[in-house]
From TrEMBL:
One GO cellular component term noted in the UniProt record for this chain: membrane
Domain Major facilitator superfamily (MFS) profile: 1-398
Organism from which the protein derives: Pseudohalioglobus sediminis
Subcellular location: Membrane
Gene3D superfamilies: MFS general substrate transporter like domains (1.20.1250.20)
Stored InterPro entries: MFS, MFS_DHA3_Transporter, MFS_dom, MFS_trans_sf, Sugar_transporter_CS
Main location, first listed in the record: membrane
Membrane topology category: Multi-pass membrane protein
A GO MF term: transmembrane transporter activity
Keyword list, A-Z: Membrane, Transmembrane, Transmembrane helix
Record-given protein name: MFS transporter
Pfam families in the cross-refs: MFS_1 (PF07690)
Amino acid sequence: MNRSLQHNIKTIYLLGFFTGFMVIVPVFVPLLQGHGLSMSQVLQTQALFALTIALCEVPSGYLADLWGRRNAILAGSALNAVGFLSLLWADTFVDFLLYEFILGIGFSLVSGADLALLYDTEVYLQENESGGAGAGRSLSRLIAVEAAASGIAGIAASLLLMWSLDSVVLVQAFTGLAPLVLALFLCEAPRPRSAEMTQVKSHGDNARRILELLLFGKPVVLWTAFAIAVFGLLAVYVFWVYQKYWELQGVPLAWFGYIWAAFALTVSMAARFSEALERWLGYRRLLLLIGLLPLCGLLGMAFGSGWWGVLCGFAIQISRGLSMSLFYEALNRRVPGEFRATVNSLVSLGVRAIFIVTGPLLGLALDSRGMQWTLLWLVAIFLPLMGLVLIPLTRRIRSEQAQPAATPGISPAA
């Protein structure tokens, strides 16, 4: 059992790499336009993807907790493989809607379950003195691997364009099968069930326990979830702003994939060294840095021009890598194993649900007010939001530290 679980860790890293290795993403818009879709139709496909994930996120996380994380990852990877294969014959608007719908269900099944399985595996190995890098470090590495995969995919997309867009689709269909194959080698990690959990008789009781955990349990859990939602929402916004910004700054289209790769690798490196940075700076200074970096990046993009403005985007990516690694580790460490995937899915649901409503407003602002006004608007919105989540989170961590046998800082190594 221990040997199989040790293989779990490397397998999840590989699965995360191939899940993040989506060569189709940096060229998705020109691909769909090549099949005759308008920009309005392109954005409708993305809206369907976000809506599908929003509807399936929490049920899929709950299924992963009840059905098993391995089974959820296996089913999600199978659906993703079908979706990527469908690109080989996709040609119409309806074909691409079907592709996004399949991927939405697939990604919602994998999302949260992979983090929960990795965390459960590390906890079991540590408790049984069977090695392992530690849950916090493994989560940071997984986030770093996924970000690095996205960066490598950006470079690969630019190179494949030397041949044709069809070659990008072909490579995506082939690599999209890899997570399904890897999921077959995963092993379900034993999860200790609390005495209260063994007495639960219905799904309603489970829902009550989850809500009690988030709203009335450890205060750090609730405020960490809020922090993930705020910083995750900003990351989604800038994801759609970047390419338009690069175009307005006169960056050649051929460079988009390379910039995309550099941004993704920056997230990867920031996540990889987040734990060491927390030990060096302390959690309060690190939280301040995580909040200031994206605001400085947005202001630099708003008032900068050309490549200087593009470079300011790296500040946002550094904050993204640090916040993802530290906040997700802090959340998962404080959530019981039987509900870990569900809570991860609830946090993701919050981000996607808000984006479904506010995403079109972002596009309207870009079309009617321009890039600079939109970036300054984002600063005006997220400056108070970050203060509203980071200040209470800092206080709750300090209060938790004052309790006997408390773990200092955000992560266990802090």
